[in-house]
Specification:
There is one protein chain. By secondary structure, this protein is of the alpha/beta class. The radius of gyration is 26 Å and the shape is globular. Among the domains are: 204 residues, Rossmann fold; 196 residues, FAD/NAD(P)-binding domain (3-Layer(bba) Sandwich), CATH 3.50.50. Helix 1 crosses helix 3, helix 4 runs antiparallel to helix 5 and helix 14 crosses helix 15. A hairpin with a 4-residue loop joins strand 22 and strand 23. 29% of the residues lie in helices and 25% in strands. The two termini are 23 Å apart. The strands form 6 sheets. Strands 16, 17, 18, 25, 26, 27, 28, 29 and 30 form a 9-stranded mixed β-sheet that branches. It has an 8-stranded mixed β-sheet with strand order 6-7-5-4-8-9-11-10, with helices on both faces. The chain has a 6-stranded mixed β-sheet with strand order 20-13-12-24-32-31.
Length: 682
């Protein structure tokens, strides 16, 4: 996508963060207290960390009474600068569970420049045995130290977005607004770089009207910064040895001008979401249905076949990404998606019946690919737990078969049973599955009317279109560039009476194609790539193509399979052909559906000057959304796109930086079309 469509696309790096360096001291209650070696300061009071948090942040923001009175359908949002050990958030969560009404929800946002390791986090939180269950939910989902946003679903009512990176930079990229701020972090005298005007300005621009704040410090730099940003503050009694602290509020936050250069991406007004129809029951549709139902929204899931019967219906699917050599929004989104899907699967299926995090090896079978991978590693200092370069010897050891080349190893990736996953997602309470084909969408004053092929109709508040390449069949989406891509997967079957069973392939291996670890005696591999082809019958020629790529990629393993009696005859291979959908720029569509004729009129000036954006917010079809164009990487993209849509619909902070939310917006293709029309004109 052109830089002018997303002017801040170069601002954020995809990199690892330095973990917190700690020393441990003994507190008065004999528990261990972490002390930062970077900032020479404690993470919480040695006297009583929990009591300090409750006094400064909970009482300072009047949270018990505000939680008790919360009746809004959106969640109450707390923003924090400096996650540390998570004590503040655990206290807020416990307070919410005690005081908030049953239907209320809590959304936590916290920044962190030096995240603790999982082991240190677990060790620190043992100081509060009363938080054991909540701490376990946090530790189990604790993300890798990678810059960006990491969404954790802590409970049915509580979500946490960890924004890893510098607080000011992270909050500038926040897409959402906050009701109460925990202005935490190490003391201004210890960490002056954090307590800068940019931080207070970012807080102000992402506050709800009347948002409150509380902080332990009364330093002049803090008081001046808050006042300059529009906050009113007052001194109140502090905790323990700290005589005073600050608390206050902002009555009228400044206007958010983050999309001034790209006004078409301004989100549409929030609408009522009691009953939503999701069209399509593949990964995109079932993920979205689950995300909405988890928030208490009633969902009717519609598909002419069963959940997971289309492109999401393969026996196995690879959970993987291929990141660009140079950092770009697409790579940043897909890595965030991979990490989110991992957390989703661990939460949904801790016994790993539907998936296996065996790892994925991307082989460098050519000099060009080897150079690309070297450039990637030089440009991205990511943790080895996320991706690392491996030699041929190391790759062979990890894959369990002899390999002639090395490549990139993604240890946390693997494979999933996509059809079974779709079925599990669709079974969530609050979702009603209906086997029906939707033929027409009609917008009405009170929502949408769906016409079905059997002559029946359905009326709902809002609609999510998630039927892949067929989305443009609906009139509001007939402008959307979506291409069907036929893919055929092949299968080799190990004889049940084989006397020499082969050593198993331990990891997913991919190059021009991919091969998955054997499942229930079946070796799956593929897949062909045929844009514009809509045929769904198996083809022997495609089986031969897959077989040739399999043998090129894994020659030693192929010989082992032959020796065990596996038949390598293309005419005898089983498999499955299905249709995926892709966008021209290979990124998914996830967002509100633009009113295309209005956009072409409102933004026609871009034909003459692509950098002069008319100050007009983008008009959208009210309550109409899409999740599509997931291609062959839907396992890594569809669940996070579902969170993007559900967050839009339910008026929550986004699970991604603003520029990445904009990158997924389907309207990006309309703007690109308008700009191209200028270049194409004589």
């Amino acid at each position: 996508m052109d830089d002018c469509l997303s002017p801040s696309a170069q601002l954020s790096e995809l990199t690892a963060l330095e973990s917190a360096r700690l020393e441990w001291t003994e507190a008065e209650d004999m528990s261990e207290t972490p002390h930062s070696l970077v900032f020479d300061d404690v993470y919480f009071s040695r006297q009583d960390g929990r009591a300090e948090t409750e006094h400064v942040f909970l009482q300072g923001n009047r949270l018990p009474e505000r939680f008790a009175a919360w009746q809004d359908t959106r969640p109450f949002v707390i923003g924090e600068t400096g996650f540390g050990t998570g004590l503040n958030m655990l206290c807020a969560w416990a307070c919410f569970d005690i005081h908030a009404p049953r239907g209320a929800r809590l959304h936590l946002i916290s920044t962190e420049r030096y995240p603790l390791t999982r082991e240190d986090l677990k060790r620190a939180l043992t100081a509060w045995p009363e938080f054991t269950k909540r701490a376990r939910a946090l530790v189990n989902q604790w993300p890798e130290p990678v810059s960006g946003v990491h969404r954790l679903i802590l409970s049915e009512r509580v979500a946490l977005d960890l924004h890893f990176g510098d607080s000011s930079e992270r909050l500038m990229q926040l897409d959402g607004r906050v009701d109460a701020w925990f202005l935490d972090g190490f003391a201004p005298s210890k960490n002056p770089d954090n307590w800068q005007p940019a931080l207070f300005q970012a807080m102000a621009s992402h506050s709800q009207p009347g948002a409150t704040f509380a902080t332990f410090t009364c330093a002049g730099i803090v008081k001046r910064g808050l006042k300059a940003a529009g906050f009113e503050w007052e001194k109140v009694p502090g905790f323990g040895r700290k005589r005073e602290m600050l608390c206050g509020h902002i009555a009228t936050p400044p206007m958010d001008i983050s999309r001034k250069q790209v006004p078409w991406f301004a989100p549409p007004p929030t609408r009522t979401a009691r009953h939503i129809a999701v069209i399509g029951a593949g990964l995109a549709g079932t993920s979205t249905a689950e995300a909405l139902a988890r928030r208490g929204v009633g969902v009717t899931l519609l598909d002419r076949d069963a959940p997971g019967a289309g492109a999401s219906g393969n026996r196995q699917g690879a959970l993987y990404v291929k990141l660009a050599a140079e950092t770009n929004p697409q790579s940043r989104f897909y890595l965030a998606g991979l990490l989110y899907t991992r957390r989703l699967l661990e939460r949904l299926d801790p016994k790993r019946q539907l998936w296996n995090d065996c790892g994925v090896l991307q082989l460098a079978l050519s000099e060009k690919e080897a150079r690309r991978q070297t450039t990637f590693l030089n440009n991205h200092a990511l943790p080895k737990s996320v991706v690392e370069g491996v030699t041929a010897e190391e790759a062979s050891q990890r894959a369990g078969v002899a390999l002639a080349q090395g490549g990139l190893d993604y240890p946390g990736a693997g494979w999933v049973r996509p059809a079974a996953l779709c079925k599990r997602l669709a079974e969530r309470p609050g979702i009603v599955f209906r086997r029906a084909e939707v033929t027409r969408l009609e917008h009405r004053e009170d929502g949408w009317r769906l016409e079905l092929a059997d002559g029946d109709t359905l009326s709902v508040d809002q609609v999510v279109v998630a039927n892949a390449w067929q989305a443009p069949n609906f009139a509001p989406l007939d402008w959307l560039p979506l291409k069907p891509i036929r893919g055929q997967v092949s299968e080799l079957h190990l004889s049940s009476d084989s006397t020499h069973p082969p050593l198993p392939l331990k990891q997913v291996v991919c190059a021009g194609g991919y091969a998955l670890p054997m499942l229930e005696g079946v070796q799956s591999f593929g897949a062909t790539f045929a844009p514009g082809d809509t045929g769904r019958k198996l083809r022997e020629a495609d089986s031969a193509t897959n077989l040739a790529e399999f043998e090129r990629m894994l020659p030693a393993y192929s010989e082992t399979l032959r020796a065990s009696g596996v038949e390598f005859d293309p005419a005898q291979l089983t498999g499955r052909a299905s249709l995926r959908a892709a966008s021209p720029d290979k990124s998914p569509y996830a967002g509100p559906v633009p009113d295309a004729p209005t956009w072409r009129w409102d933004y026609a000036a871009l034909q003459k000057n692509a950098r002069r954006a008319p100050a007009v917010a983008g008009q959208h079809h009210p309550g109409l959304w899409i999740s599509a164009a997931h291609g062959s990487r839907g396992l890594a993209s569809a669940p996070l796109c579902a969170e993007v849509l559900a967050s839009h619909i339910c008026n929550e902070p986004m699970p991604l930086e603003r520029e990445l939310v904009d990158h997924l917006h389907p309207g990006r293709r309309l703007i690109a079309e308008i700009m191209r029309s200028h270049k194409a004109s004589p």
